[in-house]
Amino acid sequence: MKDTFSTYHPVLNMFYFVGTIGITVFVTHPVLLAISFLTGIAYSFLLKGVKHTLKFNLCFSIPAMVIVALMNPMFNHYGVTILGYLPSGNPFTLESCVYGLVMAMMLACTLIWFSCYTEVMTSDKFIYLFGKIIPALSLVLSMCLRFVPRFSRQMKVISDGQKCIGRSTNNGSVVKRAKHGITIFSILVTWALENAVETADSMKCRGYGEKGRTAFSIYHFDKRDRICLIFMIISFGLTLFGASQGYAAAQFDPKIIVKGIPLTSGSALVFGAYLLFCLMPVVMELFDRQMWKIRRNTVEKQTIGGYRLWEV
């Protein structure tokens, strides 16, 4: 689903995801991670729908969070608050448990934001941004980004074709189903390799990456983009400034120290600025939908009034 923020300039789209993912990964503060998680879920709801988002989180994010949260205290034993001892004799500390939960939340937020990134940053936008700087790498990365959805669609096509000739993975013995599955996978890999070679040859024939080659672009930096860029720079700049001043600092070794709890003026500045930065696409989409409803209702009323006048 294409949202309002996706229609903005690719520079703004890239800046937004670099900011959200960067703060999530490098500033391990529980409040910032909670903001990142909630706003990422809200944006994913708008992009993919509630059902797809919940399915993704249940299938990938939650198991990954559980694994990280359990493995960290089992292998890391730093901290001064000992809760008990493992069978191996190593201490089981509160600090390692809390840090494991923080790392699990960071992983979940990163997965959610990257799922939103793949919906907004298409291969065309990526090539537009990096095609002149790193032409070969940008082509490879754009192919990788669109590879998974195309791979899934082609697998369904191949599976349906094999099913028509009696090579379904749902019928027959275990050996036959495994054999049919291997055949389908082999066909799929062959298609992927041939498609990659054809794409590379096609781009080479078009002179992609050659010096002096120009390219058509539909992206233009207009007044709407400038206003959005100013807002993003201010909100993200305030977040970085507050984080650099230590208002959102968090320490888990050797003891837990989390600044900003209880809330102070400096930490409120960081949390508020980051919340506004992350919520920006959601607010844009909701505002655009509301304005569309208002305009549609206005047009419908004018149309109905015109018909009534015509009938009189």
Order of helices and strands: HHHEEHHHHHEEH
Strand content: under 5%
How does the major sheet shape up? 2 strands, antiparallel
Q: Looking across the biggest beta sheet, what order are the strands in?
A: 1-2
Residue-averaged pLDDT, rounded? 82
Helix fraction? Answer: over 70%
Low-confidence stretches: 307-312
Beta strands, count: 4
Head-to-tail CA distance between termini: 44 Å
Overall geometry: globular
Structural class designation: mainly alpha
Please count the helical segments.
9
Rg value: 25 Å
Please, could you describe this protein's structure?
There is one protein chain. α5 packs antiparallel against α6. It is built from 9 helices and 4 strands, in the order αααββαααααββα. The protein is mainly α. The protein starts with 9 loop residues before the first helix and ends with a helix.
How would you summarize this macromolecular structure in one to three sentences?
With 312 residues, the chain is mostly helical. The chain has helices at 10-26, 30-48, 50-75, 94-120, 123-130, 135-164, 174-205, 223-244, 265-311; strands at residues 82-85, 91-93, 250-251, 257-258.
SSE topology:
Blueprint: H1 10-26, H2 30-48, H3 50-75, E1 82-85, E2 91-93, H4 94-120, H5 123-130, H6 135-164, H7 174-205, H8 223-244, E3 250-251, E4 257-258, H9 265-311
Antiparallel strand pairs: 1-2, 3-4
Helix pairs in contact: 1-4, 1-8, 2-3, 2-4, 2-9, 3-4, 5-6, 6-7, 8-9
